[in-house]
Design brief:
It is built from 19 helices and 6 strands. The protein is mainly alpha-helical.
């Protein structure tokens, strides 16, 4: 096999690796590197705990093919200088690894401590109820008091707290041996002598004792677990390989243009795809795979959400037509507008004044809609340019800037169109027959309410389906006639109450027509006078840009546009490596 090699690093996203990271020349240097990296990670937090990991990659002909994760010990209480969150942080970290079904759990516990007081086995049992991947390891057998070995043997032989995979016992280096800089090889030899010479441990099954035997058991267990997980691993690897192939193509693949003509061809292709997909996105045609798989490129879907919000916001401004406060306010306004009208006639200026005043409540919501609509178009355009030219940031920027210029111009122009919508609404008018239907429904509703009131005020039994006498029948008839007659005179007679109720009905019906019409007109104006106009002008701007770069004197500029992002180049290399 190859010679001994090792590399140490930290898994963080905070910037470059610490100075202690990198290749390690020998085992002693590896221990020192781990200590230095531990100090770096612990210094990053006030409580001396870090969720980042130290990653050691080691290759040697005399080590097994294993991946080991050394988790921190379970913390039950904090000490001076530590945050109270340490307990929860450590528990969450341990639980996250225990829950992974492909993780083999080494439940490490001191042999000189009662197994009933150690909760790692219970935690492992919750994550691995079948016990198929949990192996317990007893440490510090050399610290077990003389005469107390019997209890430890019960545990080691899987009788005290039975586990499916059982237990193992190992002896690690003591602090004295560490201070004396005892090597790992020396530690293995010392462990072998300890178990062989101890009067109790020497009588136990040697396959349960020592780091070497534990390593062998772990290797066998790992192979067994791999066999179980192999079908799903193969499937996941194929998915990752397919994803890497797609990423490789998305990031440019092997088709990077080598000369000016190739660059011009790529530019024309990117611009053609950009204008085509932007139009499809705006129309809700998501048949293209890129639009189908990436929601941030679907403009029509985003604008529908914006339109629904406008509809809800405008609807929320509707007055409470049936509340007493509104009726009182309307009564006062009708009295204030009273002119030379003959009795029984209503001044229509009340209706016009009310609608003109309330229509202005909708303007902020329409402006809110316009701003979000334009912002959504800019965002989708930016994302689409980036998606089509991921390796050429300068080209994507050129496309975005032209799109922004065109959109800014039409965003101002569509504002004038929306102002025209408000001008038309400020002069109330409609020939929509649905307003008459709504008026009739409101009046019928009011009649039903009046009829219910009549029935509820009738004497007990007087409204029965069958009458015991003509007198009872006449009494019921007179009650209905009297009560309904009173309601009719109040609501249909020549009086203030009836005119106010009629005006409420007219305002409510027209409000329904006007709000729906306004929302429809705003949506159509944004689609026609902004989106369609932007698409038309943007296509012309982009193709003029491409035509301008067809000139021979533009080769230097082409080189700038097609200068690749170094980070993307690295991502492409990584994607290609994953396919190997």
């Amino acid at each position: 096999g190859s010679a001994w090699t090792a590399h140490a690093s930290v898994s963080w996203q905070k910037g470059p690796q610490p100075a202690a990271a990198g290749a390690v020349r020998d085992r002693a240097s590896l221990c020192a590197a781990i200590e230095q990296l531990t100090a770096v990670l612990c210094a990053e937090s006030a409580n001396g705990f870090s969720t980042d990991s130290i990653v050691v990659t080691l290759s040697s002909p005399d080590v097994p093919d294993l991946t080991l994760l050394d988790l921190p010990g379970i913390v039950r209480t904090t000490v001076e200088g530590q945050s109270a969150s340490v307990v929860d942080d450590v528990n969450a970290l341990v639980a996250s690894y225990l829950a992974q079904e492909r993780t083999i759990v080494l439940a490490v516990m001191p042999a000189n401590q009662d197994v009933a007081t150690i909760d790692i086995l219970e935690r492992a049992a919750r994550a691995d109820p079948a016990g198929e991947r949990t192996l317990a390891v007893l440490t510090k057998p050399d610290l077990v008091d003389e005469g107390a070995e019997a209890e430890v043997r019960e545990v080691l032989n899987n009788r005290r707290k039975p586990l499916r995979l059982g237990y193992a016992a190992v002896r690690c280096r003591s602090q004295k041996e560490l201070d004396a800089q005892s090597t790992l090889r020396d530690a293995v030899e010392a462990e072998r002598r300890f178990f062989a010479q101890h009067p109790v441990w020497s009588t136990e099954d040697p396959r349960k004792l020592g780091v070497e035997n534990l390593t062998s058991r772990l290797s066998t267990l790992l192979v067994d677990r791999i066999k179980v997980a192999l079908p799903s691993i193969k499937y996941e690897l194929q998915l990752e390989r397919d994803a890497a192939a797609r990423d490789f193509v998305r990031l440019g693949g092997d088709t990077a243009p080598a000369d000016a003509n190739a660059m011009r061809a790529v530019m024309i292709r990117v611009i053609a795809e950009y204008t085509t997909l932007l139009r499809q996105s705006a129309r809700g045609n998501y048949g293209n795979p890129m639009l189908a798989t990436r929601s941030e490129l679907r403009l029509f879907g985003e604008t529908q959400v914006i339109f629904r919000t406008l509809k809800d916001e405008v609807a929320a401004t509707q007055p409470r037509f049936e509340e007493a406060a509104f009726v009182e306010r309307l009564t006062a306004e009708m009295a204030a507008f009273r002119g030379r009208e003959l009795p029984g006639f209503t001044n229509s200026q009340v209706f016009y004044g009310f609608m003109v005043q309330n229509i202005e409540q909708w303007r902020p919501w329409v402006e809110h809609c316009r701003q979000h609509y334009v912002a959504a178009a800019r965002s989708v355009s930016d994302n689409l340019a980036q998606a089509l030219a991921p390796t050429y940031p300068a080209l994507a920027v050129e496309i975005r800037e032209r799109a922004h210029t065109v959109m800014d111009a039409h965003a101002d122009g569509v504002q004038e169109k929306l102002d025209d919508v408000f001008k038309k609404e400020s002069d109330p008018y409609t020939t929509n027959e649905s307003m008459l239907e709504l008026i009739n429904r409101i009046r019928l509703k009011n009649f039903d309410l009046a009829l219910q009131a009549v029935v509820s005020t009738a004497p007990p039994g007087s409204m029965a389906m069958s009458f015991s006498s003509d007198k009872a029948k006449t009494h019921a008839k007179n009650h209905v006639k009297k009560q309904l007659g009173r309601w009719y005179m109040q609501t249909h007679g020549v009086n203030t109450t009836s005119k106010v109720e009629d005006m409420c009905t007219l305002l409510q019906a027209y409000w329904d027509v006007a709000t729906k019409r306004l929302v429809d007109n705003v949506c159509m104006t944004l689609e026609h006078d902004f989106t369609n106009a932007v698409l038309k002008d943007l296509e012309g701007e982009c193709f003029l840009f491409a035509a301008d770069h067809a000139a021979p004197d533009k080769e230097t500029e082409l080189g700038r546009l097609f200068r690749e992002d170094p980070a993307v180049v690295e991502l492409r290399k990584a994607a290609k490596a994953k396919q190997a």
